[in-house]
Amino acid sequence: MTTAGTPRTSGNGPLSGVRVVELAGIGPGPFAAMLLADLGADVVRVDRPGGPGLGIDPAYDVTNRNKRSVVVDLKAPHGPARVLDLAERADVLIEGYRPGVAERLGVGPDACHARNPRLVYGRMTGWGQEGPLADRAGHDVAYIALTGTLGMIGRPDEPPAVPANLLGDYAGGSLYLVVGVLAALHHTRATGTGQVVDAAIVDGTAHLSAMIHGMLAAGGWQDRRGANLLDGGCPYYGTYETADGGHMAVGALETRFYEEFLHLLGLDELAPARKDWTRWGELRERVATRFKSRTRAEWTAVFEGSDACVAPVLSLSEAPHHPHLAARGTFTDHGGITQPAPAPRFSETPTTVRTGPALPGTDTEAVARDWGIPDLVNDDLVPDGG
User: Fold this and answer.
1) Which residues have C-beta within 8 Å of that of residue 170, sequence separation ≥ 6?
2) Active-site residue (options: 139, 207, 263, 321)
3) Can 139 be counted among the known catalytic residues?
4) What is the spatial distance between Cα 34 and Cα 31, in angstroms, rounded to a whole number?
5) pTM tops 0.90, yes or no
6) Which one from 140, 169, 203, 231 is the annotated catalytic residue?
7) Residues 129-152: tens digit of each pLDDT
């Protein structure tokens, strides 16, 4: 039998009182559930025996912060019934299986809505619930490849640059799932009727490129890498190496920012090159040479306090110590782990990191008590099939 672990998590934040069931997975589903938990929802993660296979110690998986965990074996005789018990008492359920898997396990939308017609059933996949690739395996890099977004990123003479798994999994996946879930929850509260949210990474990532497609149609964007205003093709929007191997990021798009940028570099004579594409090669070379003449710290000091839109490129471990981010508390330390603080911020219902990563199964007794499901604990006492 497991013992009660982390305290109740439905305290602070605008979603306080909202109950969420998360069927354990990896990647965008857990991140979406973390965001809901950060916003104050009581998120109960249903872990499988043996864990989700992320490959790190669960105590360091910050995507499980502010949650509680129970362990349910969905392949055991009592497993689906326990998930349905949770779904009956929940406002939202999130799953990230391949299409049809939840149905085969007995916890698909029809089974859950039979117990709770008001439930918002959120489905997180790469390819979506239908289409020729729906049943195929995949990961972030493949999803963003097909949407055209990966092909936009990187130098024109090199392969596309992989933006970790931030663009697909989290921006095109998790955030769209959360938007969909919150919209559906609003609909439920207005009508009393739940629904299924089909959040596909390919859909969300394509949606992120809406402005670019508009520019492409208008002739203001070339369909190739490194040839446009925002993709590194423009010499005053990109990154430059410094004398010590660091980098500075430049985003001096508007005229007055551009002129201030050149003035601080000591290159005022290049002001006319801003709109002259034939001089962009010269401009880039001159700017690159100037940046290589000093260290990152020296250039940071030069641009400090200016509107030139220039910033040092910091590493993950450096970022929390930047004076602006430190002043805002953009990062926080909880349980010895430095991590991003919850975002966004609310004037009336502030959010916080209330608990560290939920360890698998440690909250079974507390959830059984708080959600009124004593069988969550009783099942632990009876061997499968007993």
Assistant:
1) 28, 31
2) 139
3) yes
4) 5
5) yes
6) 169
7) 999 999 999 999 999 999 999 999
